[in-house]
Amino acid sequence: MVGLTFTGPQVSTQTRSNAQFFPIVLHFLPQTLFLFLCALLFQTSNSQFLFSLFLSLLPLLPLVSFFWNRIAMVLKEDICFFNKDILVMKPQKKSPLLLRMSVLIFSMVCGVFICSVCLKQISTHARTMLMELQIEKPSRSSISSINRLNLTHDVPLLHYPEPVSFNRSECAGNPVRFFAILSNQRSGSGWFETLLNSHINVSSNGEIFSVRERRVNVSTIVQTLDKVYNLDWLSSASKNECSAAIGSKWMLNQGLMDHPKEIADYFNSRSVSVIFLFRRNLLRRMVSMLANSYDRYAKLFSGTHKSHVHSKEEADTLSKYKPTINSTSLLADLKDMEMRTAKALEYFNTTRHMILYYEDLIQNRTKLKDVQEFLGLPQMELTSRQVKIHRGPLSDHIKNWDDVNRTLAGTIYESFLHADYSS
């Protein structure tokens, strides 16, 4: 056999190095392209189908690499290096074992990394789906089961009323919280309610049980409350469609204390948040009650009775009347007021509730932020047009001040004589 002899310049070391590098690139190419494509799609796609697809393709990577290496070996045998004058044919040595092991380990590490990224994104998607399920509209049965577990005392339960008198339209998906203001007459509840109603998302419907027919028995009470909390109660304060909190005032002497157990059970079953509003200075409350009772019959404003006023002039007109307090029964009357308040707190202590005092609201307006937080409302600046009627020391508002002063001096109620707030 005649051998072929080639003459010409020798192949340089750099050319030999390039010739060895080319098959290595061919060896790495399929793994590199596959891993790059996987990483790109995993980072840019939220499709769980693609995640599963590429997970299933990962085991095929060694097979793809095998066939590609077979093709590369065929190509390596035909590699030719040319220069200007001469053609050199030189077979390449096979890739060393260490290089193949490195490629295998690299492929395994990349595969594990991609699997971990995939599983992490799938778990994140699952958690997102779970959160979406948790904020779906709860059924009445689920509400009852949660209430039985007493899980609603820390956070007010969300409701999605379906009124029959109107359509909530685009606000149908907005949750609503239920509340009730439990208080006594002349304890600042009217002023407090106007503050609440100045919030764009609150509807407090006043003293709904001031009408006797609505509190004849437990059944009529429940029917009335259902109408309120179903958003079918219409009043001047109603912001029904997009209300975030709905409620009313309920005075202790308006049937509330006649059926405490049934009403407390109703509050708990419907997840009604209770706001107790009382007045510490019971003597001032007594003065306000007597003055209001007088104007109810005297009608000092051109034959019109006003329980609340909106100007200093109106307040001065009402405060001109100085009631006479029965000093003989004063201690017993104050004690009775205290006991009535204590009983209300005892009867409804199983409800989700907070306790407010009129004096604290006047002297510390940050209490209103606590109320909004309690009801789960966005914080807003609450305002009211109402003006306080009896300002200054009580000695200016009680006709028989000396008798009252002597009666309370040295008793647990002596502090009522000196407490003053000008707001």
Automatic annotation (TrEMBL):
<feature type="domain" description="Sulfotransferase">
    <location>
        <begin position="181"/>
        <end position="381"/>
    </location>
</feature>
<keyword id="KW-0808">Transferase</keyword>
<dbReference type="Pfam" id="PF00685">
    <property type="entry name" value="Sulfotransfer_1"/>
</dbReference>
<feature type="transmembrane region" description="Helical">
    <location>
        <begin position="97"/>
        <end position="119"/>
    </location>
</feature>
<feature type="transmembrane region" description="Helical">
    <location>
        <begin position="49"/>
        <end position="68"/>
    </location>
</feature>
<protein>
    <recommendedName>
        <fullName>Sulfotransferase</fullName>
        <ecNumber>2.8.2.-</ecNumber>
    </recommendedName>
</protein>
<comment type="similarity">
    <text>Belongs to the sulfotransferase 1 family.</text>
</comment>
<dbReference type="GO" id="GO:0008146">
    <property type="term" value="F:sulfotransferase activity"/>
</dbReference>
<feature type="transmembrane region" description="Helical">
    <location>
        <begin position="20"/>
        <end position="42"/>
    </location>
</feature>
<dbReference type="InterPro" id="IPR000863">
    <property type="entry name" value="Sulfotransferase_dom"/>
</dbReference>
<keyword id="KW-0812">Transmembrane</keyword>
<dbReference type="InterPro" id="IPR027417">
    <property type="entry name" value="P-loop_NTPase"/>
</dbReference>
<keyword id="KW-1133">Transmembrane helix</keyword>
<dbReference type="InterPro" id="IPR052796">
    <property type="entry name" value="Nod_factor_sulfotransferase"/>
</dbReference>
<keyword id="KW-0472">Membrane</keyword>
